[in-house]
TrEMBL record:
Domain F5/8 type C span(s) in chain numbering: 34-172
SUPFAM superfamilies per the UniProt record, alphabetical: Galactose-binding domain-like (SSF49785), Six-hairpin glycosidases (SSF48208)
Protein's UniProt name: Beta-glucanase
UniProt-listed PROSITE patterns: FA58C_3 (PS50022)
Keyword presence, Hydrolase: yes
Pfam family name, one: Glyco_hydro_8
Region (Disordered): 45-65
Lineage: Bacteria, Bacillati, Actinomycetota, Actinomycetes, Streptosporangiales
Residues spanning the signal sequence: none
Keywords: Glycosidase, Hydrolase
GO-annotated biological processes: carbohydrate metabolic process
Family named by the database record: Belongs to the glycosyl hydrolase 8 (cellulase D) family.
Length: 570
């Protein structure tokens, strides 16, 4: 372990390359891990896609009922105009336990309708009813059994007819009990996972396949991630995200990831709010020893803060962002006032982790004026979408300056030090003038000036803002990264290695999801990269969750959330 300055924390990742024998063993074991299901649990399946469909009427031959079950959100079914009632029906082929129905409406939506199931297509049982539909996407938890499922519209929301881009029916066949449904319940989250109510910027790509199938892959990965890393090891009603590959069992970065993930997966996981609140309770119980509004960076196996008890900027940024997500999801009138806590945390970041001169992020609140690390910043902390959310939540124009300064530094670093690759280093020094990559070890390793185990997150962080905001600077930075890695690998994701010099020279001959996955978000920004994005997505799907690497698994899960259209800015 190299010497560290007072209050500097050892970073949670310096993974060692597995030996050839270990890698082979993991390769042999992985298929078993992927294919073995938990006893007694069957995940809900999409049952309706491509199944025979019928309707009460069609507007014309261009809008037949089959179009609502083809997995293509650019086609639709439409009924005759101006007539009530109307219905759309699908034949599942055999009796099924139906747990979820998802309706994606065109502008001609139903104000009043029912979801019904039937064993024979003639006698119907209501499993859902509303008289206050408002269009867009209705993602419904239901419970019923039948071979046929239909939407029965009794009151139009417009003078026209009824029109659905997609009607998706989920459940299980053979009489088995459906597993947990990735849907909201009444009074549940306002932005449920899979709802896709907050669109991305125009022109952003997504992997091929139906939206429902993409969403389900994320839910599957989330369940494995949750089983591997979400714990209640220290009592007190706390939840923690455990970090077996870090220097300590619990690190701030992991708790921040957990809070963002839990709030985003609300609707897919009925326990999301309970987990989020347990993580928040843990965070509030472990304040930084320097800035009480921030989170102490590391805790030991007994959940006691160690190594000075000071903060780490990356974890705090995600904690604050997660609180804003929670306020949007569940409101702030319950046990915790998420909005108040978010603003308090954002203001503490400004006071303890933002350099007041440069308006660039410091490494943590332990970096003080006159110290050797005061003019150092970490590019993987430059979370542009977070800065936008902080500005909106607080009304503080400082965050506009913070965003602009970091975006300008990204452009400058790419232009001066990585014109052919767009890569950024783990650490940038001399931020008070003439900012440049770390000349060697300044905090963690001799690779501090390379695209290494911190900077591997940069393509994801930059492109998260590009896809959600369409900002020209973020798009340019993300596209530069995408163009280089696609060319460097010849379009083969398996050739992405775990580390590069800024000129593109490889620093390793092995790969990791921590390096591979983030480039998928950058690929979304390039209209000519559909095949490349599909290849990256398929590679992620073929990569099992490694239970000894929360870091790689957490990055990949958050990337999968973004590339399927489920990341949003509160």
């Amino acid at each position: 372990m190299h010497a560290r300055p007072l209050h500097a924390r050892p970073r949670p990742r310096r993974p060692r390359r597995p030996s050839t024998l270990l890698a082979l063993a993991l390769g042999l074991i992985a298929p078993t891990l992927v294919l073995t299901a938990t006893p007694g649990h069957t995940a809900d399946s999409l049952l309706s896609q491509g199944r025979p469909a019928a309707s009460s009427s069609d507007e014309d031959a261009s809008f037949p009922p089959a179009r609502a079950f083809d997995g293509n959100t650019s086609t639709r079914w439409a009924s005759a105009e101006g007539v009530d009632p109307q219905w759309l029906r699908v034949d599942l082929g055999r009796s099924a336990a139906v747990s979820r129905v998802r309706l994606t409406w065109e502008a001609a939506y139903a104000r009043a309708y029912r979801i019904q199931v039937s064993p024979d297509g003639s006698s119907w049982t209501d499993v859902y009813s509303t008289s206050s539909g408002d269009g867009a996407v209705d993602d419904l938890s239901v419970s019923g059994t039948g071979r046929y499922v239909r939407m029965y519209g009794t009151g139009r929301g417009t003078p026209y007819g009824y029109s659905l881009y997609e009607m998706e029916v989920y459940g299980s066949t053979g009489g088995s009990t459906p597993g947990p449904s990735p849907t909201p319940t009444a009074g549940g989250p306002r932005v449920p996972f899979g709802g896709h109510t907050i669109p991305y910027a125009s022109g952003m790509l997504r992997p091929g396949g139906s939206q429902a199938a993409l969403d389900q892959k994320v839910v599957d990965h989330y369940r494995k991630w949750k089983a591997a890393f979400v714990r209640q090891n220290c009592g007190n009603g706390w939840y923690q995200v455990i970090s077996p590959d870090a220097d300590h069992p619990y690190v701030a970065e992991a708790q921040g990831y957990g809070m963002v993930i839990a709030a985003t997966m609300a609707g897919a996981d009925p326990d999301a709010k309970k987990i989020f609140d347990g993580l928040l309770k843990y965070v509030l119980a472990h304040p930084s020893s320097i800035t009480p509004g921030l989170l102490a960076a590391e805790q030991d196996a007994s959940c006691k803060s160690v190594n000075g008890g000071d903060s780490a900027t990356d974890g705090d940024l995600d904690v604050a962002y997660g609180l804003l997500l929670a306020d949007r999801q569940w409101g702030s009138s319950g046990t915790y006032d998420y909005k108040r806590l978010a603003i308090r945390h954002i203001n503490a970041i400004k006071a303890g982790e933002l350099n007041p001169t440069t308006k660039l992020l410091k490494l943590g609140d332990w970096s003080s004026s006159g110290g050797e690390h005061y003019w150092i910043s970490r590019p993987s902390d430059w979370m542009i979408d977070h800065f936008r959310a902080f500005r909106k939540a607080t009304g503080d124009a400082t965050w506009d300056t913070v965003r602009a300064n970091h975006q300008n530094l990204i452009a400058s670093m790419q232009s001066k030090y990585a014109p052919g690759t767009g890569l950024l280093p783990d650490f940038v020094v001399d931020t008070n003038g003439g900012a440049r990559p770390a000349p060697g070890e300044v905090l963690e390793s001799t690779n501090d000036g390379d695209f290494w185990w911190n900077a591997c997150r940069v393509p994801w962080r930059i492109a998260n803002d590009a896809v959600t905001s369409g900002d020209a600077g973020s798009l340019a930075a993300a596209r530069k990264l995408n163009a280089w890695i696609k060319a460097r690998t010849g379009g083969d994701p398996g050739r992405i290695v775990a580390g590069y010099r800024l000129d593109g020279g490889a620093l390793a001959d092995y790969t990791s999801p921590a390096f591979l996955a983030p480039f998928a978000v950058a690929a979304m920004t390039d209209p000519g990269s559909q095949a490349w994005l599909d290849a990256l997505w398929n590679r992620m799907l073929a990569t099992p969750v490694s239970t000894d690497s929360y870091y790689a698994a957490s990055i990949q899960l958050q990337v999968m959330i973004t590339v399927t259209g489920n990341h949003w800015v509160p």
